[in-house]
Amino acid sequence: MEHHNKLFLLLMLLIQVLLVAAQTNSQDYNGLAALTGFWTNRPPNWVGTDPCGSNWEGIRCSNSRITELKLLSMNLEGQLSSAIQQLPELDTLDLSYNTGLTGTIPQEIGSLKKLKSLALVGCGLSGPIPDSIGALKQLTFLALNMNRFNGTIPGSIGNLTNINWLDVADNQLEGQLPVSDNKGTPGLDLLLQAQHFHMGNNKFSGQLPEKLFNSKMLLKHVLLDNNQLQGSIPSSLGQVSTLEVLRLDTNGFSGAVPSTLKNLGQLSELYLSHNKLNGSLPDLTGLNSLSYVDMSNNSFNDSDIPLWVSSLQSLTTVLLGDNQLSGTLNLTSGYSNSLQLIDLQDNQITDYKPGSKKINFQVVLAGNPICHESEAQKLSYCQLPLQTPAYTTPLNNCSAQSCSSGQVSSPNCKCAYPYTGTLYSRALSFTTLNDTDYKELEQSLLKSFESQKLPVDSVSLSNPSRNASNNNFQLTLDVFPSQTDRFNRTGVSSVAFVLSNQIFKAPEFFSPYFFNGLNYQYYGGEPKSKSKHTGAIIGAVVAVVVFLGLAFVIGMYALRQKRRAERSELNPFANWEQNPNSGAAPQLKGARWFSFEDLRKYTNNFSESNTIGSGGYGKVYQGVLPAGEVVAIKRAAQESMQGAVEFKTEIELLSRVHHKNLVSLVGFCFEKGEQMLVYEYVPNGTIMDSLTGKSGISMDWIRRLKVALGAARGLAYLHELANPPIIHRDIKSSNILLDSHLNAKVADFGLSKLLVDSERGHVTTQVKGTMGYLDPEYYMSQQLTEKSDVYSFGVVMLELVTAKRPIEQGKYIVREVMRVMDTSKDLYNLHSIVDPTIVSSTSPKGLEKFVEVAMRCVKEYASERPSMAEVVKEIENIIQLAGLNPSVESASTTESYEVPLGQNVKHLYDNEDFSHSGNFPTAKIEPQ
Fold it and tell me: Between vectors from CA 717 to CA 713 and to CA 720, what angle results, nearest 5°?
C-alpha cells in the first residue's frame, strides 16, 4: 500500500510539472477538457495536458491561447455544452459533418466575442438557434445548415453587422423572417454587408416583409425556396441591385410578379416555380446577365410568349411548363446563340413558328394542343427533355487498378481510400451541364486544394442527379490522398474545411454550392505529438524519471499478462470450461473470444460516453479494437442472461452465418459472470430510422428498392444456404440496418430458430415476434415456417412504400393497402398512402409491381406466399425495370442523402427490440 501511495504522489507531481511547463493557457486547457471530455472518437494524439505545445489535432493556438477548433468529419459523438464559454479566444469553430454531435447550441456561445467563423454544417443539432448568437459582433461566416434546428430565427442576428455568409438552410425553422422596428429591435434587414441569405428547406411562413430588402444591401444570393411563404413577392427586392441568384420556388406566393425585378441588372438565375403566381409573365427585357429562368408550375396566362424569351443574349434555359400560356411560340425574330432549352410543356400552345434559321437548342411543347395529334407526337419538340446524363471523371491516360476491399482506383489509377461526400449546387442549370463543365469543376477543386497545400492527388465526380425534394443538383465527390493510400485526420479535416467554409470558389455555373461530408474510416499516418519548446523537454525529462520508477512494476505486470495470454492461446475457452454447466466450448467459424478486461479497455471501462443503446436486455457500447475496427458490444444485464448452453448455441448460430447482408458477429465474452456479444458496427441506423427521419438519411425510390433487395438476399441466405437453415422470426424495419454505403444488413437473431432435418417444413414453437409483422397463420397454429419470415418481410416492403408503421393510430398497414388498392387505376389508386417523398409527377418505376410482390408476401395462408428466393428474383426484375443493374447493390451514402426535417436522432442501438437472446425483451409479442 505504501508503495502505491508513493507511486500516486509521483504521478501527481509529474502532472503538476507538466502543467507548469505547458505552452497552453490553463483556462483554455480546462475549458477544452470540459467541452470535449464526454465526446467519443476524439483524435488519438490528444494526450497530455498541452494542446498547443503538443500540436493536438484540430487545435491552433496563438500566444498560448486556443484560437481554432476544427474537427470535421471525425465521427464525433457528444454535445456542444456550456463549457464552450471557457474558450474565449476562439476565432474559428468548425465541427461540421459530425452527425453524432447532438443537442442544442448553448446560450453561452455568445461569450465567444472574438469568433469570426462558426460552422456546424451537417451535424445532429436541434432546438432553437439561441438569441445570444447575436452577441458575436465580429462574426463574418455563419453556417448552421443541414441540422434539425426549429423555432424562429432570432432577430438578434440582425446585430451581426459584419456577417457576409448566413446559411440556415435545411432545418425546421419556422415563423416569419424578422425585420427591425422603430423600437430598436434588430432584424435581418440590418445585415448590409451580407452577400448570402441561404434559408431554403425550412418552414418559414407568412408574408415576406417588404422591409426585408433595401438599396443599401450587397446581397448576391437570396435563397428562400421550399418554405411556406405566402402573399405577394415584395417589390423591394428590385432595390438590391447586386442580386445574382433569386430562389423563391416551392412556396405559396400569389399574385403578379413585381415589375421591379426588371431593375436587377446583375441577376443571372431566377427561380419562381411551384407557386400560385398568376397574371402575365414579368417583363424581363434588359436583364442581360440572365441565363436561367424557371417560372413553371404557376398560373401565368399570357396569350403570346414574351419577346425577352428570344432576345436576352445570355439566356440558356427558360422553363415555363405547367402554366396557362396559349397562342404561338414565335422564334422568327431571332434568339440568343446561348439558348439551349425552352420548355413550355403542359400549356395551351397551339402554334409554333421556328423561323428560317436552324435551331441549335431544344424546344419542348409536349402536353400542349399542338402536340395532341398522333403524328405530331413524333416531332422533336413534342418529346420530353432528356434527363441529366451520367458522368464519371475519366481516367488520366492510365488503366484502372484492381484494388483491395474499401479502396478505390483514382483518376490517376492509384488505389486509395478517398474522402467522400456530396457536392450540391443550390442554383444550377443542370440540364445544360456537359463534360467541359465537369472538367472545369474538377480543375477548380484541385486548384483550391493545391493553394491550401493539402495532400490531394486527384478528385473524382460521379452520379450527377437532381434532388427531387428541393431541385438542388448533386454530385458524389471523392478526394484522393497523395503520397499514400489514405488521409490522416489533418488531411480529412483540412479538405472538409475548404468546402465547409467556402474557401473553394466554385465556377459561376455551380455557385452557390454546399458540401456534406461523410465520416472517414481509414485514417493513417496520424501526426505524432511534437514540440520543440523547452516546456515539453522538461516534461520529457520528468517522464524519464517517472519511467525509471515504474519500470519494475510495469515489467512485472507485463510478465503476468504474457503468461495469461500464453494460457489463453493454448486454450482460449479456458474460462468457458471452468463453468461446470456450460458444456464443451463453442465451435466457432470466424468469431473470436474476448476477455472481460479486453472489452472493458475497448469501451473505456464501459463508460457512459461509450453507451450507444440500452433496454431491458442491458446496454450496448461502442468499442474500438486495437486494429481500429469499430464494434458494437452488447452487455447483457444480470436478469437477461441465458444459461451457458443456450448462450453457446446462440454464438454458434451467429458465427455460422456469413453474408454481406447480415450483421456479422465479431466475437463474444463469457467470463466473470458476464455474457457479451461483439458485433460489427453499422453506422447509418435502421430502415425505420430513415423512414421516420431519425437517422438523417432520406431514401429515394431507387435506394428503397436496393435496400429491399439487400435484406431479401440476406433472408434468402438464411432460409436456403445456411446449414442448417435458419428462420429469423423477428423481421421488421428496426432490425434491418444500413451500413456506410446504405447496404441493408439483417440484424437481431435473438429469436431465430434452426431447422434441423426432422423439422423441415415447419417447427412447432411458442409464438414470438413483434405485433404488426407477425404471420397470422403462425400466430394461430404455432407452426413456424420460412414463410413466416416472408410475411414479415412483406410488411417491411409496404413500410418502404408508405413510410408508415405497421400499426399506426389503430390502422394496420396491410389492411389499409388492401382497402385502397385498385389495379385498374393509375398507381393502383395508392396515391393517398404512398410516401410523398418518392412520388413526383409520375409514379416511380416498378412501384406497382413492388406492391404486388409485397401483397403476395402477406397472403393469409403460407402456401400462397412466395419463397424468399422468389422475392429476390422479383425485386431484381423491378430494379431492371427501373433501368439499373441489380448486381450493383452498393452506393455511396450520398445517394439521395438529405438531412431530415425535424426529429431527434435515435441511435440505431438505442432500441428496446435490439436483442439477440431468447430471454431478452423481444422474446415475446410486442406492440409497435
Answer: 125
Helix (H, G, I), strand (E, B) or coil at 319: strand
pLDDT of 587: 57
Distance between CA atoms of residues 421 and 649, nearest Å? 42
Q: Which amino acid is at 518?
A: L
Which residues, at least 6 apart from 842, have a Cβ–Cβ distance to it below 8 Å?
none
Place of cell 484494388: 403
| Per-residue confidence (pLDDT) for residue 349, from 0 to 100 | 93
Separation CA 50–CA 55 (nearest Å): 8
Bridge partners, residue 294, by sequence: 271, 319
| pLDDT for the residue 779 | 82
Omega prior to 88 cis, within 30 of 0: no
CATH class of 687-926: mainly alpha
Domain range annotation of the chain: 408-517, 572-680, 687-926
Query: What was the pLDDT predicted at 657?
Result: 80
Burial class (CB in 10 A: 0-12, 13-18, 19+), 420: buried
**Beta strand residue intervals within 120-160, DSSP E:** 124-127, 141-143, 148-151
Q: Has 660 been labeled as part of a binding site?
A: no
What local confidence, expressed as pLDDT, does residue 844 receive? Answer: 84
Alpha-carbon distance of 577 to 586, in angstroms, equals 10
Among residues 730, 739, 748, 913, which one is catalytic? 730
- From residue 429, alpha-carbon distances to 170, 171, 381 in Å are 21, 24, 20
Q: Identify the pLDDT of residue 412.
A: 94
Question: What does the alpha-carbon distance between residue 520 and residue 495 come to, in Å, rounded to a whole number?
Answer: 12
Which pLDDT belongs to residue 909?
40
**In this structure, what C-alpha cell is assigned to residue 263?**
431593375
CATH no., domain 408-517: 3.30.70
| HEC-encoded secondary structure of 428-491 | CCHHHCCHHHHHHHHHHHHHHHHHCCCCEEEEEEEEEEECCCCCCEEEEEEEEECCCCCCCHHH
Cell of 923: 422474446
Which residues, including other chains, have CB under 8 Å from residue 444's CB and lie 6 or more apart?
504, 505, 506, 507
Report the alpha-carbon distance of residue 907 to residue 912 in Å, rounded. Answer: 11
Q: Where are the alpha helices (DSSP H) in 484-533?
A: 489-500
Angular region, 729: left φ>0, alpha ψ -120 to 50, beta rest: left
Chain-centre distance for alpha carbon 573:
41
Residue at 650: amino acid letter: E
| E runs forming strands in 637-709 | 665-671, 674-680
Give CA separation, 398 vs 366, 413, 843, in Å.
44, 6, 42
Single out the residue of 721, 873, 716, 701 nearest to residue 790, CA to CA.
Answer: 716
Q: What is the pLDDT of residue 916?
A: 32
CB 73 within 8 A of CB 501: no
Assigned superfamily of 572-680: Phosphorylase Kinase; domain 1 (3.30.200.20)
CB atoms under 10 Å from CB of 563, counted, come to 10
pLDDT along the chain (928 residues), means of 10: 46 46 80 87 89 92 95 92 92 95 94 96 95 96 96 96 96 96 93 96 95 96 96 96 95 96 94 95 92 94 85 89 92 81 93 83 92 84 79 91 88 94 78 80 94 94 79 89 92 94 89 90 61 44 49 53 45 45 56 88 88 75 84 85 73 80 89 87 87 82 93 93 86 90 85 61 69 88 90 96 89 92 89 85 81 95 94 94 68 34 35 32 34
Name, in order, each residue with C-beta under 8 angstroms of 882's C-beta and a sequence gap of 6 or more.
701, 702, 705, 844, 845, 846
- And the C-alpha cell for 126? 436541434
Task: State the residue for C-alpha cell 429491399.
Answer: 708
Concerning whether 131 is annotated as a catalytic residue, the answer is no
Q: What's the rounded Cα separation, in Å, for the pair 729 and 792?
A: 8
